[in-house]
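Contributing: when you submit paired examples, paste them exactly as shown. First protein:
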Amino acid sequence: MLKYFILFASILFAQNTLIIDSKIIAEELERPLLVRFEPETNLMYIIQQTGEIFIKNGSNTILFLDWSKHITVKPMPDERGLLGMAFDPNFKNNGVFYLSYVDTENYSVISRFKVSSNKFKADISSEEKLFYFKQPFNNHNGGHIEFSPIDNYLYIAFGDGGKFGDPFNHAQNTENYFGKILRIDVSSDNNYSIPNDNPFYGSDNNKQEIWSYGLRNPWRFSFDAINGDMFIGDVGQDSWEEINYLEANQAGINFGWNLVEGNHCYSNPDCDQTIYTEPMLEYPSDAAYWKSIMGLREKNITGCSVTGGYIYRGKQIKSLYGLYIFSDFCSGKVWAFNQKSNEIIEITSSLLSSDQHMIASFGEDIYNELYIVDYLGAIYKIQKGK
């Protein structure tokens, strides 16, 4: 069973010895959720929840794809829209990329696309839907997609379907996609296939795409660029935010939602916690979400909605190497976590000039340098401080 580290708001943890800074790469964006970097060229793609994808090419910003007519998204706190993008491992040769979005009929969709003859434009007509399913509500859609650097399979995260407390018990039910991490092989031109080492491979009763389950609302997961270990930020209900950890190729793990929240019983006060995998770390959800989205920043809070990040494997900041960087959407705080020592360092003030940020995700370029995506309209690059 994994050790877990409780992050209390009163511990403003270890003294900040990391000399780091950030610089603005893009601003005046509309609800940016994600940045991706094209293999080989390192061109930045900015994904907006409203359906647009822009390429940042030096000082120029180019509209790569406008998918706004094909999605559903309303003003905050709507969690639908264009939610994820990933480049095919063979993108240099095939020009293939994947999108995750919620369509106009409230279906979660995973689709394959190709770049047009103009490399700065997507071929809209090339869409091939891999699979889709109906969402019951407008939240907890998840939608993050990522290729593993180890097996080149596509991993997909979906939330429990929304509302309060997982009312349909989706996350523990392996006959659906809700509250799951999926894993599929998209290397052939024929839609996709199921890897034969998936935990439910060949099952007639369980969804064979499932890799792990028992998640509430996985908001951003990533792979360690060195060893392929997976880190999952899972947004809590009322009390606990958590980061979950999977070693590379660790299949069939149940993280426990909605029977546990973090490392605590939720729906059943007498639950047997030993049958679930504990989070790598957790911290109290002590902020009011509605105040956060209205810009009413509370004092002395830790947060209320975790944003999963990355293990830093870049070369520019030696003191950050091997640390897991993550954040909270409500508080705007950023932390660095050392798995070996269980030490957490808050690095918010080093990176950002104020606390008026809503960090929707982090990005990793082809050199393993990290970026911050501020939902309020800006992209920052984490860099060495002076």
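Second protein:
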Amino acid sequence: MHRRNFIKTFTGATSLFYLNNLLNKSAFANDALKILTINIAKVTETWEEMAAKADVPISFYQKIGSPNDLVEIFSKGNGIELYDAVTDNGGNQEDILSKKKLIEIIDVSSIKNWINIIPEYKKSGKYNRTIRNDKGDVVGIPYLSNADSLAFNKAKIGADINSWEALFDSQFKGYSSLQNSLGPTIATTAIYLKQSSKQDIKNPSNLTKDEVRGVCQFLINMKKRGQFKKLWDNFDDGVNLLVNEDVLVSSCWEPIAIFAKRNGIDIKYGIMKEGHLTWNNVWMFTSGGKERGQEKNFYKLMDLYLSPWFGTRLLDKYGFTPQMIGIKKYLEDSEKIDLLKKQILIERLVDKQKRFSINGNSWQNLYPNEVATYKEWWQKFLAA
């Protein structure tokens, strides 16, 4: 349902990493911080390098599955016994796991780089809400976010695109692509329909039954007229459609646009006037991790995730949005980053700030109330 299919491109089998320079193997296996996460949480070539940078022994376990799967692993499975720290899959997992006392309240005073966190997390509102439980306690440390937008072939089109309307414009009939995932595709379409006053929609990320029906019927009509070349299924699929110029406009994750551009295609990632689908991912500390005395290792690792060192590499490697201040200064002060790359990354950062400032943005970090209706109408869209 989520962009997390992107994980598949950057993952291997579940694995353990042993850092011989930190501890001997037998001691490491017992003392390592066992993390259940995805490979995009790694901005180095290997997890060994991430562990060395944090000065924390790490055992990495690959996380796959849906938000529901993650909750099940900890509430009904043996996740507490297996993992000390875990990243979310989107949705409201922090609330669920906190209510079940499966994750711990985080002492942010133990994280030196907490002072670097972007100001939005310290104010009331949607950002703040994603890292706190119902009582207001911090239970998550954000490490990446983004505002999903539209990629387009600037060389072929000859102009910038600033509206989701391009996905549905007859000019791009047969050269448009959407993600084969009901959550983001329905939500981004709802953002367009709401902000263009084509349909009466209150919250694009949490539609009523009638709103789901209206949005999906719009998509069905577009599909029947041949508007979409293909619904892309995974990261490689999304990149290849752009690189092969099978499509000229695509609703996709920013890393897809970046990797397509690295293949020599003039792909731009737009700033949509109607708004974007915004989201974040967070780290959580499990109750099992606390029982095993892993607080020190967890806080040291979180310190790394809130450092400009991590944020700059995240911005460069994947194009995701850093969750800390000081990135521009870090870039300007770095002697190891060449001038052209500095310019590219600063421009990327400025574009992100513009996307996040659009009033029509809709926050994705929640489960819609009418999930069954979403699934029902998505199947009708796929069958059309």
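If you have annotations for the second protein, write them as plain sentences, like these:
The chain has two domains: 3-103+105-138+281-306, 147-276+359-383.
The longest helix spans residues 339-356.
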